[in-house]
From TrEMBL:
InterPro entries: Amidase (IPR000120), Amidase_dom (IPR023631), AS_sf (IPR036928). PANTHER family: GLUTAMYL-TRNA(GLN) AMIDOTRANSFERASE SUBUNIT A (PTHR11895:SF151), TRANSAMIDASE (PTHR11895). Transmembrane segments: none annotated. This is Amidase. Belongs to the amidase family. It comes from Hoeflea algicola.
């Protein structure tokens, strides 16, 4: 299957604004690409038959894939579960409605793992179909990586935006918690569930964020000498593949060559403790959020999901409150950490996409940042010996999304140079 030619959102928008491509033509490009490629990739759970194409709006002509965990009034919404086969919501999720108001065309619903948890779906990695695309935003990442669409929406509760972006060799952006609305999302763990975005490059994903939200997020020039970058030295690093460790140190060298102030920083103990608390916090909330599904549709749920919901329901409120306390301490430590550095460099995943579709990979490098609510971006550009993508994750202080995207774009340029 090899490297697929991806669609650049920036190039499409420039062509549209210059009068060289009208929205109908842009949407037809994606429709044709989906018709040609998706039988092999299996990125879409549903493709819109007659999608509405807006003539105006900042996202007019942009074919947007929406993870099938968000409600859409005009397309079935199955949440990756047989329990919701053919389910048709009455209204759009807030982010879907926002995208439509900005002129985007909801081209289809992208495949999600069951309830955006761990049970894998049928989507394959466009770089090598024998490997996972990652999860839970499997279809969103694979559809962009395969060049079917220029942009997609996903979610992250553990590592479900950053990891699939890394495995598929594209940019994934998990914004600061609540920067993007989550109303109309099938929640798993509401205090963690974060809406995120996918596009071919960091420049593209930053542009997407700006056009979607109306916030100033498009990658602006940055003075590297004024930005303190540090490799985040957490205990997890020892467990990363040699190829990943090498990519990370190469990334740090390239950042230094590009003029950034680069060093190392140790993981504060409170943040390590918060990472360890993520699972219990997530499961207790899933026990509540997905309890109704367990009560009504147990026979349609995977054993893996049933076990997680039951574990969550067995966690006492006092134990949950203790995890919340650890998370809060971690956030305080994170604020202190970002007093010393502006940007952290860390792996997006332990290595390249694992072989086989039985697992969507490991979120050990992502879940802390989801819990901290801090913005994170996967920067593509590195590969392992077999040609599979390796992702570098950059993280900034809560609310510093604009700086993060600007720095990530500058680093992406440096990695490609």
């Amino acid at each position: 299957m090899g490297h697929n030619r991806m669609m650049s959102l920036e190039a499409l928008i420039s062509a549209r604004d210059a009068g060289k491509a009208d929205p109908d033509v842009m949407i037809t490009l994606s429709r044709d690409a989906i018709a040609r490629k998706d039988a092999a990739i299996k990125a879409f759970a549903h493709v819109a038959e007659n999608p509405v194409v807006a003539a105006t709006g900042p996202l007019a002509g942009v074919a947007l894939g929406v993870k099938d965990i968000f409600d859409t009034f005009d397309q079935p919404t199955g949440y990756g579960s047989a329990a919701y086969d053919g389910h048709q919501p009455k209204v759009d999720a807030a982010i879907v409605d926002l995208a439509r108001r900005r002129g985007a065309t909801i081209i289809g619903k992208t495949v999600t793992t069951e309830f955006a948890y761990l049970h894998p779906a049928a989507t394959v990695n466009p770089h090598n179909p024998a490997h996972t695309p990652g999860g839970s935003s499997s279809g969103s990442a694979a559809a962009v990586a395969a060049g079917m669409i220029p942009a997609a929406i996903g979610t992250q509760t553990g590592g479900s935006v950053i990891r699939p972006a890394a495995f598929c060799g594209i940019a994934g952006y998990k914004p600061s918690y609540r920067l993007l609305p989550t109303g109309g999302l099938k929640h798993f763990a509401p205090s963690l569930d974060t809406a995120g975005l996918f596009a071919a490059s960091v420049v593209d994903v930053a542009l997407l964020a700006q056009l979607l939200t109306g916030r100033t997020l498009a990658a602006a020039p940055v003075d590297p000498a004024s930005i303190r970058v540090a490799v985040y030295r957490c205990a997890q690093l020892e467990g990363a593949d040699p190829a990943m460790q090498e990519a990370l140190s190469k990334a740090a060298d390239m950042a230094a060559d590009a003029g950034f102030d680069v060093g190392d920083i140790a993981e504060p103990e409170a943040m390590a403790a918060a990472r360890d608390a993520h699972a219990a916090l997530q499961e207790h909330e899933a026990g509540l959020a997905c309890g109704p599904d367990l009560a009504r549709h147990r026979e349609f749920l995977s054993q893996r999901l049933v076990d997680a919901i039951e574990r969550g329901q067995a966690i006492e409120p006092a134990a949950y409150d203790a995890t919340r306390k650890l998370a809060k301490r971690g956030r305080t430590a994170a604020r202190g950490l970002f007093g010393e550095v502006d940007i952290l460099l860390t792996p997006s995943a332990p290595g390249a996409a694992p072989e086989g579709l039985g697992s969507t990979g490991d979120a050990r490098f992502n879940k802390l940042w989801t819990l901290m609510g801090t913005p994170a971006v996967n920067i593509p550009g590195f590969f392992d010996a077999s040609g599979l993508p390796l992702g570098i994750q950059v993280v900034a202080r809560f609310g510093q999304d604009q700086v993060l995207l600007a720095v990530a774009a500058a680093l992406e340029r440096a990695f490609r140079a």
